[in-house]
Amino acid sequence: MLTMQRVSQACEVDAVAALASAIWNQHFVPMIGQAQVDYMLAKFQSSPAITRQLADGYEYYLALDGGQGAGYCALVPQPAQRTGQLSKLYVRQECRGRGVGKSILAFVETRCAVLGIDNLWLTVNRHNAGAIAFYHRMGFVTAGPIVADIGNGFVMDDYRMVKTIGAC
User: Quick count: other Cβ atoms within 10 Å of Cβ 132?
Assistant: First the structure.
């Protein structure tokens, strides 16, 4: 059974960073190359980066399957604007196809409802066909391309995807 655990302790931050490293090195190296994966892990998914994000209002959650890390997500709520960014949703390769991503997303949408958020958005690498198809199945629509310079000569070549959630 999948359980969601809010990340707040240093050991939980370290667990997310370790999970990120495993997932990113397995999934994204063929897509964007080792150098960019290494850079992005250090800049966005390392323990210090996650700790800074938590201080800036990100909500991180570990998805645990039988007590083991199956994936993780990060929500950046902006309740005053009734919007939130699904900043991260990643699932270990061996856990894909078992409903883990769908369960994580359902959890995020429930959390958004609690916070009064009715618009959820995300960015996804435009070459990540599996993730794009997943988000379409989950009700997201593609809102357009985004190319963002992230430093060190790297760019994120993404699509912005949006979903209206809630009872309205």
Answer: 17
The amino acid at 103: S
CA atoms of 54 and 70, how far apart (whole Å):
20
For 140-168, the three-class secondary structure string (H helix, E strand, C coil) is CEEEEEEEEEEECCEEEEEEEEEEECCCC
Q: Kindly indicate the confidence band of residue 167, based on its pLDDT and cuts at 50, 70 and 90.
A: very low
55: enclosing H helix or E strand:
helix 47-55
Q: Which amino acid is at 101?
A: G
The mean per-residue pLDDT over the stretch 33-60 comes to 97
**What value, to the nearest 5°, has the Cα angle with vertex 6 and ends 16 and 121?**
80
Buried b (16+ CB within 10 A) or exposed e, 117-130: bbbbbbbbbeebee
